[in-house]
Amino acid sequence: MPALEAWPHITRVPRPESPIPHPHSVIISLQKEQCLSAARRPAFDIISHGPDQTRAIGALVGKVVPRGSLLLLSGDIGAGKTTFVQGLARPLQTGDQIQSPTFTIVAEHTGTGIDNKPLRLYHIDLYRLEGVGDLDSVGLDEYLSDPDGLTVIEWPERGRDWLPKEYLLIDLQTVSDSKRNLRMTPYGACYVELIKRFRKEMLGSRG
Ligand SMILES: Nc1ncnc2c1ncn2[C@@H]1O[C@H](COP(=O)(O)OP(=O)(O)OP(=O)(O)O)[C@@H](O)[C@H]1O
Ligand SMILES: [Mg+2]
């Protein structure tokens, strides 16, 4: 298993934090980030100061993400990936309690998209994946090709050779007990657009 740092898409760029006060205590700081690679992918970091803020960030993504999208959530155990999905599911009105599908690998939740049409949220956790055979049995293609699906994958490193090339990567890093850094990096034009919509939504929510 290659370490996260070995994942070619991710380059760690040390940078100073520049907190921007948030009137509603939802999102504390946003920092436009320099491009990460030769492809000049726009990425930015958001600091969350607690699980509720991470859920709020997830909910903002849930409000703007188009059906058919793929979100990859990387980060160590306890970084907040499932907490993020709990927020993501809120505007989709799944009504289910979202937990890590660590043992079942896939959890399917039925909800309603922001376009008021039915949508299926596929929450996948590849942590316990043993090998390629295992991934085959997950039936990833079926989820990814569902035009009315939204697929979110925790521990995507474990299936990295089998994942599509276009997705939004959200990397969660633990800074302290309650503080997390969420770095969003779009791969593919649709996800660049998604980031733009997310930022617009976020700036709107700041009042
Ligand atoms: N800012 C924060 N954002 C998210 N979770 C936080 C934050 N601060 C503290 N926490 C705590 O960290 C834990 C995150 O757990 P969660 O299950 O979301 O992590 P995970 O990344 O999905 O882990 P795993 O890899 O085991 O699935 C929770 O107990 C949550 O309360
Ligand atoms: Mg989890």
| Tally of structural domains | 1
CATH architecture: 3-Layer(aba) Sandwich
Give the CATH class.
Answer: Alpha Beta
Mean pLDDT: 82
Explain this structure to me?
The structure is a single chain. Strand 7 and strand 8 (180-187) form a beta hairpin. This protein is α/β, with parallel strands linked by helices and 207 residues long. The longest helix is centred in the last third of the chain and has 17 residues, at 189-205. Helix 1 crosses helix 2 (81-89) and helix 1 packs across helix 5. The model is unreliable at 1-39 (pLDDT under 50). It is globular, with a radius of gyration of 16 Å. Helices cover 25% and strands 25% of the residues. An 8-stranded mixed beta sheet has the order 1-2-8-7-3-6-5-4. It has one domain: Rossmann fold (3-Layer(aba) Sandwich), CATH 3.40.50.300. It contains 5 helices and 8 strands; from the N terminus they run E-E-H-E-H-E-E-H-H-E-E-E-H. It has helices at 51-64, 81-89, 132-138, 140-144, 189-205; strands at 29-32, 44-48, 70-74, 106-112, 118-125, 149-154, 167-174, 180-187. The protein binds adenosine-5'-triphosphate (ATP) and magnesium ion. Adenosine-5'-triphosphate binds at residues 48, 50-51, 53-54, 75, 77-83, 100, 127, 154, 178-180.
